[in-house]
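Hey, quick one: can you model this chain's 3D structure?
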Amino acid sequence: MKVIIIGCTHAGLVAAKEILEIHPDTQVTIYERTNGFSFMSDGVFLYLNHSLQQLDDTFVSSPAQLVNLGVKVCDNHNVLAVDPQKKTITAADMTNETIIQDDYDRLIVATGANVRLPAINGIDNPRVLLCKNYQQVQRMLDLAESNQRIAIVGAGYVGVGLAEGFATNGHQVQLFQSHQQILNNYFNQETAARITALLEDHGVKVQLQTQITNIFEKADHSLQLKTANRTFSADMIVICTGFIPNTRLLKNQLKTDNRGALLLNNYLQTSDPNIYAAGDCAAVRFNPTDSDAYIPLASNAIRQGKIAAHNIFKNYYPYTGTQATSALKIWGHYWATSGLTIENARHYNLNAFEVTLTTDLLPEYLSNEAKLNISLIYNRDNRRIIGAQLDSNKNLMPAINTISLAIQNHNTIDDLAFVDMFFQPEFNQPFNYLNQVAQAAIRQERKAGFEQPHFTYDF
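Sure thing. Here's the predicted structure for all 459 residues.
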């Protein structure tokens, strides 16, 4: 079989390696328009925090490594067109300045995403930067060496991570968010407020409900960020306002959602059965709402890439969907989330309720330096768990994977309340904190007049 992969993103790289692992006789060709293969953009935070010595360490692979595996690598090749009827692609070899054609039996689209640019006048100023690919990140870091005041527009994971990194390195940082809270796609308002307080305690000025409309340069070369009624000053600006799927190549050829993300079936096939897709170019099944959504996360990309590698031969593995489980560490504090926040659940018109537990990690007769907060969101109609957020001064982040599995498997608060979890006083309380928060949800339901359902088990 001849397989072409467009884009050596996380998804494309995983797919290529897995194909040759399970079917080493497959002809695999990767077309990538740059020579930077699977740049881990999150690595910029590790670099800023001095966990990495050089930015080049954030590349997951290289063309030479793929060639050694048996992949035909066409880097610096820009794919110009795909013809699904003829099963061919047309690409520009940007090194030799020639146009080539190639054919495939199966095509995997792994073109990733681009930064979603907001409608801001003056955004084309050379000191207004993006933070997605290697070249953009290197330019940003180079400019930061000679510019003290940094404005970050957008307070999702990328914006918050950069705010911590630049503040840690002594920069004056302003973080602008058009919403009433930061990280609004991931955390509830209460948790977001604690993250905001931590940022401000370390010198980051967080500007909420602040919509930048215009950027201009003054005579002293400072950059001015204007809103409807205020003006802020900076030396450089980084735009971190989310992503849009990079699917222009296949526009009007394959079915997409209203964002342009490729729509897939359970086996990651597009509307053309010979074309599969994986990663940030595609929509995913979001299990808490049982609907398609656009959730550009590396965890989704690598999982889809591996599944697509198997399914191009035969549809072995259905995609199980996602809970958008993710985590964040800033200044020694840990935050994690899975599924829906209470605000987003109600946006979907779910009969959602939330319970919050603040507790010590260990029994009270032991030293209790470890503190944690956990919020659990459930649907009152069926008592199913649909979301959670957890934060602690200790690394308890693996616990969010338990919540993720509970959401995926449609588990209820009653299931989680008494699920078997180990107890040793050096590690936790007799009832794990996940048990405790589910038991708090049951008490909340009982007080509201909703009795616990009767269960019958056959042994």
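One thing worth noting: The CA atoms of residues 89 and 287 lie 34 Å apart.
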